Structure formats: structure tokens, C-alpha cells
Amino acid sequence: MKRSKSRGKPISQYTSEEIWKVLEESDGEDHLMEELEDSNMCDEMSPPCGTETIDSIRDFINHDYCEVPALLAGDSVVFEQPSMSSPVPALPPLFEIDEPVLPVPNIMSEVRQPTVLPVPRVTSEVRQLPVLSVPRVISGLRESALLPLPRNEETTILPSRVELSLQTAWNSNVRPLEKEVFTGYDQLKKQIIFFSADSDLWTIFCSIIDDEIIDFMVYHTNIYAAQLLQLRTLKQNSRQKRWKDVTAKEMRKFIGVYLLTGVIDFPTTECYWKKTRLYYHPLLHEISMTYDRFCLILRCWHFVDNRSQHCGRLYKIQPLIDKVIHTSRKIFTPGDTIAVDESMVGFRGKLNIRTYNPQKSDKYGMKIYILCTDTGYTWSYKVYSGEDQIIEGLDKPGSVVITLAEDLLNEGRLLVTDNYYTSVSLARYLKQQKTDFCGTVRKNRRNLPAEVINAQLKKGEIAASQNECMTVLKWKDQRDVLVLSTCHDHQMAMSTGFRPIMKPKIVLDYNRGKKGIDIADQLASYNSPVRKTCFWYKKIAGDLMSVAVVNAILIYKDLHRNNKMTLLTGHEIIISHLLEIQDAELLAGPSMTSNLSRHELTKIPRRCATKISRKRCVGCYKIMTEQGNTPTEARRKAKQTDTECLMCKKALCLHCYNASH
What we know:
Elements (H helix, E strand, L loop, with lengths): L15 H10 L3 H10 L2 H4 L2 H16 L13 E3 L18 E3 L21 E3 L7 E2 L4 E2 L2 E2 L16 H9 L22 H5 L6 H8 L2 H19 L18 H16 L27 H10 L17 H13 L6 E10 L7 E3 L7 E10 L4 E6 L12 H9 L9 E4 L6 H9 L3 E5 L9 H4 L8 E5 L4 E6 L3 E6 L6 E3 L7 E3 H21 L10 H24 L7 H12 L5 H5 L1 H4 L7 E3 L11 E2 L1 H9 L4 H7 L2 E2 L1 E3 L8 H7 L1
Parallel strand pairs: 7-11, 11-12
Antiparallel strand pairs: 1-3, 2-4, 5-6, 7-9, 8-9, 9-10, 12-15, 13-14, 14-15, 16-17, 18-21, 19-20
Helix pairs in contact: 7-16, 9-17, 11-16, 15-16, 20-21
């Protein structure tokens, strides 16, 4: 018989009190149970005493933190029945027997196996016998959450185990996912509350760049000019010594001239005031702002007091960004689709936040994270500084998305991103915030289904997998397209365009939502006043002025659906008000200069005096497409006409005009 390492007498001579004392003083129950098993204590003790002692030991060990034994591959559990000659009755099993044997891969061989009581005993016999209830097996790993863990052991959850459990949640049974209900328009749109059908473009622009922002610029510009005057490095004839404090009226003229340099492009700023026949522009000689005064205000244009305490790399421009974005949000309610992407403001000077992006037209510059609607309205504007905070459970790109869309969550919108931001964790986070998600995804992202990632497809084929809240789909077009969505299945639909083809609906909705970023970039690039300068924050300020103009035009077009105002016309109207130009025809805009109050069929204007301009009738084309003709066939069969509706600006024959009006 074995001797106890901690006592000098056999284990069979221990009393119940001594056994309890050993168990309470140490974690040696494994060693004690081994000696109990080897000593055949059950045969040496009387039946009542032996049964009571073993039951007490079993209850003490199993209380709150008993662990199920880990089974090796090919093992099974066999219940030993005591000998018929033994006076000791059979001990009841420690666990309920309700499941068949589950073979478990040998992945725990290096982990210390918990010692098990004599009943049940793990043997190497491969027999299909009833066994105790073991944890459900997932890809060779046990779900530790199904059983309570020992209190005297530290538990570490390995990242690989969590990732594997997420991967195995994918299955090929794709079902329709429920789309969140959009509630953003339950109340009236902000643009309808703040404006009416009679509101003009200048009123909307003044709501974005309001008097508070103008006074903010005036105050900090004057402070910075006073600080420059105190410098001892100024030359005797320096332009700075002729500084006079700028006023709000003068600041508006300065912004007007600054925006005008984007509409009229001259090689240098000085050329705008030249009187030579090549560059002479009479407007700039009539607005009471000389070249020296413009350059002086541009030199002192500032948005923060340098004497106050600052934190962060963006302290010179962040106050202006906050004010412009705040007023832009206050007067507009986005629709049910929003998109997040990055833009670039070109800059090649020395700057610690400068980045390089070969996919942008300005490869070097300051990266701007923007959130736009599908029409191109800029709702959020964030400059990359390398100091972004990370939300728990998300990566850096995902944290940026949540920061930009924070005020738009829990309203049932669809958020669209490209593969730089898309991840499984971001989609799950947004779904918990009652916001749908759709975007392309990189194949090396974590927790994606391997059977979809590695699928070899031919052109037009798809492979899809789904878990409880999202779908991952791979579609073969000219190349593989991998997308992730929380509100789509693998449904196909016909695309629109010159050559319609069958595409997954998730791809069509992605293209429809992502176009908002492209529209915003395109509109902001037209007539941009941003010019070469060594002050990076002034380039961002110029970009913000362009964003304000574009946002004002988009709100105006949303209020006046029949008014086809162009971006250039919008710039002209705003600049004319800023420079206080009394041009009635320009200030009135296209809605008042032409008689567009009613529909009227008129001749299409001729491009030359000897040739009649003809176009395909829009009504005939629509009828042909509804009859099942392809776009090419419908365009060929549609009637050519030389008339159009004056208000709709669409070519219509007499028959289609009478039918639609």
C-alpha cells in the first residue's frame, strides 16, 4: 500500500475529519484521490462509513468547480461496477448520462489532465457506451464557457480560440437577412424646418458660414496680426507694418476673392490685379480690395490664439472644422444611405501628418476622412493626425467609421465603406447599433469563411456563406469581388446602364451608396480655391470653404427639385453676394431669369444656323424599354424630335409630351 507523502500512515487509517482537513489546507485532492483509488479504501471500511466518506469527498471536490475530464482520441468512458462479493453498494455516477460518445481530437495532450475519481474511469477501450455529458466540440476545441472554471486557476482566453469559434459559425445555408427600419425621417427633415421653398442659395450658404464663423475668423486674424507686429524680424518697409484690423464685411470680401480664384484660374495671385490686356479683370478693381490687402489678410488668416494652451497636432485648424461641420449638421438630415471614405488635400511641405496615397490625384498631402450621403453632402470631416482613439473591440479604421457616424446610428441607415474599413467586428458592432452595413472586404481579414475566400469561380458565379447576422459573398466578374453585408443575401438582379448584366444585389447597393463619396470629391475638385502655400492649415480652410459651397448647393437642389442649378452657377451666385456685386441677372439665378414656371414644348436650340438639332424622344425610349427591348434597340427605335419641354429640359415628341403633361 502507498504511503502518503504528507503523512506517515496509510490513507486508509485517516479519519473523516483528517481527510477534510487535508482537503481544506491544500489543493492536493488529485494526490489524495490517487491514494484512495490505490489503497482500495472502499473494501477496508464498513459500508455506511465508507459510503458516507466517499460521498462527502466527492461532494466537496465537485462543489462549484469540478471539471469534466478531457477525453483523448479513441477513448471512451466505462463505468466500473463493484464486485458482487463486495459489501459496498455501487456508487452513483457524478454526472447525468444522456449523450453518446463524442470523439475528441488529441489537442490537450500537453495540458495536465484533471485526476478523476474511480467512478467513472477513463479507459482505452473503444466501445460505444453511454457517457457523461461532455462539452460540445467545435473544430477540435472545447467550449470552456459551458462549464464553470476552477476558482484557483487563472484562465486565459487565447485569441486563436475566439477566432476559430467565430469562423465555425459560418454556414452555406444563406437566408434573407432582415433590414433595419429607417427612422431618420420620422420627424421633419431639418432642411425643411430651417428653409422654405422661397429660400435662395445665399440664405442657405449664410446658414453654414454664419456670422459666428465670420466673427471667429476676424477675431483670431486680428490677434495673430498683432502678434506678428511684435516680431523684431520685420523689415522696415514690410507690408505687415501697414496692417489695419479686418472687419466682418472685409472678411466676406476676402472669402469671395478667395473663391473667385477657383472659378477664374490665373498663374499667380498677382495676375488677378494686373492691368495688362492679357490678365485685366475689371471686377477686382471695383471691390475695394487691393492686391496688397488681400495678401496681407491671407498672411494673417488664423483660427486659433497661439498664446493659449494647445494639445494635438490639429490645434490650428480643428476649431474651424468643428464650427463648419456643426452648422452643416444643424440644417440637414441625411437619408437612409451614407458612405465613409478618405479624401486628400495636396501638400508637399514638411509636415508630420502628411501621407502618401498612390490612388489619389494628389498623392502627397493630408488625408481627410469624410462621411457623405448618396447625393454627396458632407456630414463629417476628420483630418488624419495619427492620434485617433481606438474603440474597444474594433481596429483603427473601424473606430474612425464609428467616430464619423456616431450621431447617425440607431436610425436604421445603411453604411457603405470600402475594403480599408470593412471587418467582421465593425459589421457586428453596427448591427448592434441598429445600423446596416455593406462594403467590400479584403480576403486576409480575420474571421472570414475560408470556403468562400478560397472558392475558385468562373465568370458570373458566386459563393456565399452566412452567420447569424451577416453574409459574405464572392462574385466573379473581370476579377474576384468579395463583399460583406448585414442586410443582403445572395440574390441576383439586373444592373442598369449601357450593358446591363446580372449582378448580386449587394454589389448594386454598394455601388449606389459608394457613389456619394465620388460625387463629393468631384464637386469639391471643381472650382477649388486651394492654392500653393506653405501653411497647411490654410489649405484645409480653403477646402472647407469649397465643402460649404457644395453643401449649400445640394440643399438648394433638394428644396427645388425642378431647378437644375449647376455647380458653376452656384459658385457665381455665392461669390457675387460675398463681393456685393449688384448684378440682378446673376443674383436672381436661373429660376427667375427664365420663364420656367410652366411646362411648354419648344424647339431645341440650334448649334449652328443651318442645322436643326434633334434628339431621341425620352418618352419613346421609355416605352421601348418597357416592351423588353435592350437599351441599344430602344435607342435606335425611339423617335427623333426637335422639340423639348422648357421646364423638364427633356426631348419629347408631341405625342409623348401630351401623354406625360
